Every structure is written in structure tokens, then in C-alpha cells.
Amino acid sequence: MRRAGRKSCRSCSYPEGVLPPTRTVLAREAGLYAMEQALRRRGFARVAGADEAGRGACAGPLVAAAAILPPGRRGEVPGLNDSKLLTALARERVYEEVVRRAEVWSVVVVPPGDIDARGLHVCNLSAMRRALASLPTRPDYVLTDGFPVDGLGVPGLAVWKGDQVAACVAAASVIAKVTRDRIMCELSEAWPQYGFAEHKGYATPEHSAALHAHGACPHHRFSYANVAAVAGTPGPRGTVGVAPAADEDEDEEAGVGVASSGRGA
User: Fold this and answer.
1) How far apart are the first and last CA of the chain?
2) Quick check: is 218 in a domain?
3) Is residue 242 included in any domain, yes or no?
4) β-sheet bridge partners, residue 260
5) Is the residue at 220 inside a domain?
């Protein structure tokens, strides 16, 4: 697919015996829906997208989601975009539309302890794989944001900035981000001293100050260097949570935890 670029094409994955589709030209006028429309024309009726939220945070879970949008106007979600480009209020509105309109969707929540034990990247890939495997309907083709996910038994493509060029990936990014933000707001009620509701667990100056003032709580990622330094434990992976720019999330991976799924209305 031309829009995916050469880098994305190297991330194609096909089960043994399955041939990739022939070269497809994406219609510019279709915008965010062009990639799925092109795949449907090639016979892939159900195209699933997968994405995650919380990779760059030093506290709270990693959340991965997957979604299949229906063809036609029902699958055109008003205001749909990469979750990082939407305000919190807009994300909530789009989230409600996505879960109502989606053919199927699923979400997987990975607790911080699993990230510490298994590593962020391993957890990220595992979470997206589990989210896709948890869909009540098996997809014919899978689009993932940034990283290829194998072991799905169906062909797939890792798309650079997939949440900005493929509607199903954008839908998954909104589900993951809203789910995680709600979890962080709930954690803020139990641990108000950290301000989780405001920074969502990212290493903002306010969060760093709270860490030094109160130490780490059970919901921090102790394998991250900034948390390990405060807790007095070695950070074996040397990862530092990075504060996103204005309501922005980082793109990366993880998996194992609580899974839920649903169908659109």
C-alpha cells in the first residue's frame, strides 16, 4: 500500500500459505478510511486495528485495544482521529461513538507489576496480540500502530503513525486512551497526593515533585529509572517515563492483564 511507505511494507506479516494482496492504490478522498476500503476491495471484509496507551508513563497500567469498524457510513465515526490529537472532552465523545458503532472491540489492561517483570516492549506486543485475539469476531486482516504483531493467524501490517492514517487504528487508540485515563482518575481518588488525574502517570514536573515528596506507590513502575531512584531500588531496564506534550500520549507496547470486549449497538 503506497501510503504505508517502504518501512511499513517490511512489517507485513502473513500466515504460511497466505499470499499478500497485490499492490493497492489508496483513494485520497477517502482520508482516514482509505486503507480499510482498499483492503475490503481486496477481499478482506473485516479489518481490525490495534493500538495502546500509556507506554511512556511511569505510573499506571498499559492499555491496549482493538476494534473493527463496519463498512459504509455506520463505520464513519464523527470526529474520529488519533487520540493524541483530540481534547479529553472530544475523546470521550468519540469513544462513545466508537463503542456504539464498532462491529466489535476489545481492551486489555496490563498492570505495572507485569511491565516491571516482563519489560515494556514484550508486554506491549503481548497486550495488542491479546486485544486482537479477544475480539468476538475474528478479523480477516490486522493493522497495528508502529509495531508488527505476529501469532495472529491472519495477515497484518504495522503502519507508521497508524492512528493517523487508518480509522480502525484510530478507533483502537481512542478506546485505549479513554480507558486508561479513566483508570488514572480512579487511582487519583485513592492516591490524591500524586495528581494522577491531571498528568495520567507521566513524568511531569508536578509528578516528579510528588514522587520525591511522598515516594512511590504500588501503581508506579519500579523498573523505570526515575521511580527506582526515588524508591532506592535498581532500575534494571533504565527506562524513564517521559511527560507528553499537552494531553499527548506516547506510542509503544505491552500485555497481560484484564481483558474486556464488546459489540456495537
Assistant:
1) 32
2) no
3) no
4) 107
5) no
- Three-state DSSP class for residue 166: coil
Contact 145, 251 (CB under 8 A): yes
* In-domain check, residue 153: yes
* Model pTM score: 0.81
CATH number at residue 99: 3.30.420.10
Strands 156-159 and 141-145, sheet pairing: parallel
User: Which of these ranges, 25-29, 95-99, 125-129, 200-204, has the smallest mean pLDDT?
Assistant: 25-29
Cα separation, 17 vs 20, in Å, equals: 10
Who has greater pLDDT, 82 or 38? 38
Mean pLDDT of the 154-166 span: 91
- Nearest in space to 176 (alpha carbons), one of 21, 32, 65: 65
Taking 90 as the threshold, does the pLDDT of residue 228 lie above it? yes
Q: How far apart are CA 261 and CA 206, in angstroms?
A: 34
Nearest alpha carbon to residue 21 among 4, 43, 6, 5? 43
- Total domains in the chain come to 1
> What cell numbers appear for 178 in the block?
479513554
Cβ within 8 Å of residue 100, ≥6 positions away: 264, 265
- At 258, the pLDDT band (50, 70, 90 cuts) reads very low
Q: Measured between alpha carbons, how far is residue 248 from residues 84, 119, 173, 200 in Å? A: 5, 22, 12, 10
Tell me how many degrees the CA angle 207-235-84 measures, rounded to the nearest 5: 45
Q: Is the pLDDT of residue 257 over 50?
A: no
Instruction: Name the band, by pLDDT with cuts 50, 70 and 90, for residue 146.
Output: confident
Q: Are 64 and 253 in contact (CB under 8 A)?
A: yes
Q: In which domain, by residue range, is 19 found?
A: 2-180+250-263
Q: Average pLDDT in the 167-196 region?
A: 97
